[in-house]
Amino acid sequence: MAILSKIRDRSGFLIIVIGLAMFSFVVSPKNIIDFFSSKNVDTIGKVNDEDISYKEFATRVENFKAQNRNASAYGAMTVENMVWDQMVREKIYETKLAQAGVVIGEGEIWQAIISSNEVVNSPQFKDKDGNFNEDLLKAYVAGLEADTSEQGKQYLQGWLSYEKSIKQNLLTQAYNSLVNVGVGVTEVEAINDYVITNTSVSADYVYLPFSSIPNTEVKVSKEEVADYINDHSNLYQTEATRSLNLVKFAFTASQEDEEEIKHSLESLIADKEEYNKLSKSTELIKGFKNTENAKLFVEENASDLPLVDRFQFEDELPTVAKEEIKNASIGEVVGPYKFSQYYKISKLLDVQQIPDSVQASHILINFIGAQGAQPTVTRTLADAQKLADSLLTVVQKSSKKFGEIAQNYSSDPGSAVKEGSLGWFGYRAMVPEFRDYCFENKKGSIGIVKTAYGLHIIKIEDQKNFNKAYKLATIARQIQASEKTENKVFEQAETFANELRNGGDFEAIAKEKGYAVSPVNGLKALDVYVGSVGENRRIVKWAFDEETEINETKRFDLDEKGYAVVMLTNKQEKGLMSASNAFSQVEPILIKQKKAEMLEEKMDADSLEAIAKANNVKVENFSNVTLGAPTISGVGIEPGVVSAAAVSKKGALVNNIVGNKGVFAIVNKSVTVPEADASKVSVKTVNNIVKSSVSSQLYNGLKEEATIEDYRDTRY
């Protein structure tokens, strides 16, 4: 939590100074009112009685979304769960370290930052000699604080999040270090472990597998499951869960819909005559095949996929139309063809032999507003153009000067220290303008290209692996249901829901109509995904609503994807699992126990040979199996069986040993115990293994011990 220090100014206003990572700021009276308003003091959860405020949580969620371009692909609730888990982790470690009197200071955070590989190796923070310069980093941070643009604010939030992640790593390391001080093994313990692990056993055995008794011959009742759960109550505690049955009515394009989509694309290819109301005459409208501007045609006809404005190698062409495209003449239109949920028509614009890799150098000239330009840049675009033209003239006269000029003038420090060299890169590695120059011009070419990053003076050093490539203009139409089809799907879903409201049997009606019923079991209050429906918080909230009764049904709109008709089939409240909910977990355990009892009765004999004969099996053996790797050939991993053989009297029959795969009877033939040789043991290595194991499992232990209250289900 932030450290609050109260200071009164002459006006009597309470000013709150809040320490945040490396920075601090003064909050105005309005901020104070906002901060203490009822909305902001709401807590969304607690960890060991430490509040997690809704405001803090919501801010962290928004920051995560702003700084992760792919956040939308996760889904809203998934992002919220990730942020929640991170905040819980932070609170747990902060609490534990506070109890131990350990504080992570700003100096420690800064030292960790300037020691991190991503900062030290960033070209942005290196001087002209290629060495990390702390002052450049400080200037960068100061620039972020001074930049009040929206992009600047996003960059600052990104930096603050990076600081927070560094602090969290330090917290974790600090607590793990405290714990590891008391973790370790002595040389004697390490030697004993070596001896036990490498003790080997040889034995004869008879094995009666559980699979020899069909599951149909073993019955388990709900009462037996309930008794088992009560006897092992610590293993069967559960969160509140719900179980559902659902039928999904998806908007799926019909054959008629697909034919209509194909026809709409076909109508775009050829020229056609249309009556112009203004000129009161019939005009010839050029189609896709004869249009002079294919890119504009694609835009005007609203393709459902963006134009791929680059060359494509053969392996990138759509498989169903590849041969047609390869054999087409420039200007020819291929299609309609169906590919990846779309119907498409493609016009071949150009065919060239281009390299798949280029080696190039560049000199970047920044200007005000260019992406990545430092706040200190004052050069206008016009000034940048003059400088670039001047430098181009020099390097065109003497290309040998390119490296020296790059070192002195380029705004890209990463390549400047290498005389402008970018090394080898593939066709899709660079922004389009840069890519097109490098791949569509010849080796040795030098020219100027403008991109979002500034003006680039580019020199093509080398090219390799030339292959035929194709430039296409493609109009795509997504294959989706028509309004007529969607109306039909709605009628089906509503009719089904109506019959259920009138007392119909969910599964019987679904079976009669040929609908697939999807059960969803163990749904939790904060779950995001609901079986085949996918992400749908509305269904989850309905299932957990106190007023929703078992066997109640409801139809849900699936956000333009269709409908789902859902029935609540079971409720499990927080606490001990019910016998019905735990049945699928406990039944296999009880079946195994009952089979073990049945197989033990078949081992009532005085020798392995007699047991084998009575059960029509053979006496088998294993040799030199170690306790550290207790795998019996042909059976599997059986630590209990190998351990029993190791401690049994040589030559004595030991039967009714219940293993992982069945019941065993064994006779120990020999046990080989290695010498307690200290030279074969590395105490340091064993200690590292133990400490690594403790560190990896520590957080889960701390989390189980912590008191965590999660109120998010009331908001999301």
Automatic annotation (TrEMBL):
GO terms for molecular function: peptidyl-prolyl cis-trans isomerase activity. PROSITE patterns: PPIC_PPIASE_2. The keyword Isomerase applies. Residues 355-462 form the PpiC domain. Belongs to the PpiD chaperone family. InterPro entries: PPIase_dom_sf, PPIase_PpiC, PpiD_chaperone, Trigger_fact/SurA_dom_sf. This is Periplasmic chaperone PpiD. Keywords: Cell inner membrane, Cell membrane, Chaperone, Isomerase, Membrane, Rotamase, Transmembrane, Transmembrane helix. The chain crosses the membrane at residues 12-29. It is a single-pass type II membrane protein. It is found in: Cell inner membrane. It comes from the Bacteria. It comes from Wenyingzhuangia gilva. PANTHER family: PEPTIDYL-PROLYL CIS-TRANS ISOMERASE D, PERIPLASMIC CHAPERONE PPID. The keyword Chaperone applies.
